[in-house]
Specification:
822 residues, alpha+beta, five-stranded antiparallel sheet, 23 helices
Length: 822
């Protein structure tokens, strides 16, 4: 996959930064030869647009991989050689044609996979357009070639006929030869009674000494000479006919192969492009797989000039890896890293360089989110002991020749990495050269990282604008490095501490310290103080971080408790609502029974009396439904008080006494004292239930409280008035009240069928009482489930005369207009 102009670097730099090892890891994760070929040719790009696009594609492929929807490559083959031969009118074998069809199907599957996931992977979906559509070619090949890469019998009518004739003739010939082999006239002369093939012709094995007794054509002799394979004269003509059919079959097969080859030739250019595109996608998928395995992230800041790595881990290190934080860029253009040997200076240097190469190849980097890397136009690295034997160069000369080339080529924005700068020569001269080289790269606008042991460079980096010290930690107690990179603090060699720990006599160490200059001793003491201050600050930071984590955990626990309480509240409310709906359904059944009774009496009473009785029954139903509809809220509000009430004594449970039913979370009226099994008959709304006395509590509204709350719904002594005699008023008053509050339209948007139908039923009753003759039910279009349920309900409702879909000015298909009975 071409990623625009390549990054300017050197093969020595790529090798020093272990880039070939990353290429090997990436190649091992490809699925096709084309993908591996792309990986082997991979080089970092220098264009920001190309790098951004490659990173976006890797991120999208990683998202699909993490979601269990990786890019599919099953069936993809490298068919470029077969396509090239077809272009030259060469004949393709059936296996090659099957590979073409399989690859075409693989490309089609990949394209469908990506187009179906455009929202999650828009860049990959756009790139799917590079996969050609070869489904017609694949279908033509599959119609002629089977999964075993052989031509099918039905590849053409002529081939089917010829193969059928061949099978029939072969079977007849074998039967004839089997009969001959078992016949008394021929069997004594045969080595064994079997039929075999020699040179494509059916023969029998004859003992050499009886060759003259079996007339026919000799086609072969055994290696021992004891057996000759003879085609009996009786079957020569049949064998000849069989060979003629085989020639015709080969001729027809070649014609079919040539015809399919011509179709491949017609699509050769498009097939080549598809194969190349499959290789590109395989490279992207391999990058995603490597990202997942390394727990890597897409680097940010590609348009900037800041290196900011958070928790960076060198991808080739094994075992526990200590992550490092690096910041370079902006005002700080040069970072000078000091510290003891094997402390991690070179690894830190190489981590930054390898991350830059990986990012500009479209690879994610193993670091924490928020890590930033710019797009470098050049990356140069001088690291490792590469003494040139053939050139008779010393270590110093080898490094210096490389650095000279880097100075000559470096331009603004380049990343320059220098390991042990100035080493291998006189320390004073080496330090001076190192300072001048760092200044030269900084003046050219490069970002530079250098490792060194020279103390002079520590002071130089401290006072030079645009430069900063860094160090790798070392634990003097254990004589082991911690591998942590500390920005802003120069490192120590820890030579005296290591020597003392290893047993060097104290008097020798004192003499050594005396040889140090006063300035060196002051610098060492200052570094000790700075290290102590750093450790103290780190402890304080760690303590603050622990406190923050604990606070976060406590906040998360509080959120979880709140969510649990909200879920419990919702569950209780839902349970109460369901119980209330069940009570409403029972009340409706009772009311319908009352209405039926009223209608039955129409024959015995005057029309006016019957109508008044029916209307009174309906009014009582509405009143009870309103009370029950408010029951869940009332029950929820009173649950805490009522549930806490004591269980009433048997003598307290007299008819008319108000009690609280815990299992229903509703108040009820005692109808009869407890029976022998301590069961109490209670009326809850319109429902009569038998509950254990232990399920009852003294109601908070009972006794003294009953006189002050809810008195409008009860008569003297807390008893409910009989149905038809509550405070409902006359039919005229009820109808007038309904007419003032009822609307000619009921909005059912957002409701389920179970929630909507009780509302529709109540609304129709209210509308009928209010004198409305036409109402509109607004259910919306949606899936149509609610519309169908509403219309089925209307079709059987006692008050509905007819109904129809709403006209355009009435809401169209989203509404249903019902006409009520007169």
């Amino acid at each position: 996959m071409t990623m625009s102009a390549e990054l300017e670097t050197t093969e020595r730099t790529l090798a020093a930064l272990d880039f070939p090892a990353i290429v090997d890891r990436l190649a091992a994760r490809t699925a096709t030869p084309m993908g591996e070929e792309r990986v082997r040719a991979l080089r970092p790009a220098a264009g920001r647009l190309a790098v951004r696009r490659a990173q976006a594609e890797t991120t999208e492929a990683r998202l699909l991989l993490d979601a269990g929807q990786p890019l599919p490559f099953e069936g993809a083959r490298d068919i470029r050689a077969a396509v090239a031969r077809a272009e030259k009118s060469g004949r393709l074998e059936a296996a090659e044609l099957w590979a073409v069809a399989s690859t075409a199907r693989a490309a089609a599957r990949l394209a469908r996979h990506l187009r179906a996931r455009r929202e999650a992977a828009p860049a990959l979906a756009d790139r799917a357009e590079t996969l050609g559509d070869h489904t017609a070619l694949a279908a033509a090949i599959e119609a002629a070639v089977d999964a075993d890469a052989a031509l099918r019998d039905d590849a053409s009518p002529d081939l089917a006929r010829l193969r059928r004739q061949h099978r029939t003739l072969s079977a007849r010939l074998r039967e004839r030869l089997d009969s001959l082999a078992r016949s008394p006239a021929l069997a004594p002369f045969l080595q064994e009674p079997l039929v075999t093939l020699r040179g494509g012709r059916y023969v029998v094995p004859v003992k050499a000494e009886h060759r003259a007794q079996v007339p026919g054509v000799v086609h072969d002799t055994s290696s021992s000479g004891a057996t000759v394979f003879i085609e009996p004269m009786a079957v020569v003509e049949v064998n000849n006919e069989l060979r003629r059919l085989e020639a015709l079959i080969r001729e027809e097969e070649e014609r079919i192969l040539d015809e399919l080859g011509a179709r491949v030739r017609a699509e050769a250019a498009a097939l080549r492009s598809t194969v190349e595109a499959l290789g590109d996608f395989d490279l992207i998928a391999a990058r995603a797989r490597l990202s997942a395995e390394m727990d890597a992230v897409e680097p940010e800041g590609l348009d900037g000039d800041l290196v900011e790595l958070r928790g960076a881990r060198h991808p080739l290190l094994t075992g526990p890896v200590v992550p490092i934080d690096v910041r370079l860029g902006g005002e700080i253009r040069t970072l000078v890293i000091t510290g003891p040997n094997t402390g991690g200076k070179t690894v830190s240097l190489k981590t930054v360089g390898l991350f830059a190469l990986m990012a500009q190849c479209g690879l994610h980097v193993p670091a924490r989110p928020g890590s930033r890397l710019p797009v470098f136009p050049q990356v140069f690295c001088d690291a490792g002991d590469e003494q040139g034997v053939a050139q008779s160069l010393s270590t110093f000369s080898s490094h210096m020749s490389h650095i000279v080339e880097m100075v000559r080529r470096a331009r603004p924005g380049a990343l320059v990495l220098l390991d042990e700068l100035g080493a291998g020569t006189d320390p004073q001269e080496g330090a001076a050269l190192a300072m001048a080289i760092l200044q030269a790269f900084q003046e050219r606008g490069c970002l530079t990282m250098a490792t060194t042991h020279y103390s002079e460079l520590k002071a130089f980096a401290h006072r030079e604008p645009g430069m900063r010290n860094a160090s790798v930690e070392f634990d003097a107690d254990t004589l082991r490095p911690t591998y942590r990179l500390v920005i802003g603090l120069p490192g120590k060699s820890h030579a005296f501490a290591i020597a003392a720990r290893l047993g060097l006599p104290e008097e020798i160490l004192e003499r050594a310290r005396a040889h140090l200059s006063a300035e060196s001793r002051e610098v060492a003491d200052l570094l000790e103080e700075l290290a102590a201050l750093r450790d103290e600050l780190r402890r304080e930071r760690d303590a603050a971080e622990r406190a923050r984590r604990e606070a976060d955990e406590q906040a998360a626990a509080a959120r979880r408790r709140l969510e649990a309480l909200e879920r419990e509240r919702d569950s209780l409310a839902r349970e109460a609502r369901e119980k209330a709906q069940a009570l409403v359904r029972r009340a409706r059944a009772e009311a319908e029974a009352l209405v039926a009774e009223a209608r039955r009496r129409l024959e015995e009473e005057s029309a006016a009396e019957a109508a008044a009785r029916a209307e009174a029954a309906l009014a009582e139903l509405r009143r009870r439904e309103r009370a029950l509809a408010e029951a869940p809220a009332a029950a929820s509000a009173g649950d805490g008080r009522a549930a806490a009430g004591r269980v009433p004594e048997p003598g307290e449970l007299v008819p008319g006494r108000t009690v609280y039913v815990r299992s229903l979370r509703l108040e009820g009226e005692v109808l009869a004292p407890p029976d022998a099994e301590d069961q109490v008959a209670v009326r809850v709304g319109v429902m009569r239930v038998h509950v254990p006395r232990s399920d009852l509590a003294v109601a908070p509204t009972d006794g003294a409280a009953a006189g002050s709350g809810g008195g409008g719904a009860r008569g003297a002594g807390g008893r409910r008035p009989p149905a038809g005699h509550g405070g409902g008023g006359t039919h005229v008053q009820l109808a007038g009240a309904k007419a003032r509050e009822i609307r000619p339209e009921l909005d059912l948007h957002g409701l389920t069928v179970d929630e909507a139908l009780p509302l529709v039923d109540k609304y129709l009753d209210d509308a009928y009482l209010a004198g409305l003759r036409t109402v509109r039910l607004v259910h919306g279009k949606g899936t149509g489930a609610l519309r169908q349920a509403v219309r089925r309900f209307l079709a059987t409702h006692r008050l509905v005369d007819s109904f129809r879909p709403g006209a355009a000015d009435e809401g169209g298909p989203g509404t249903t207009v019902a006409r009520l009975r007169d």
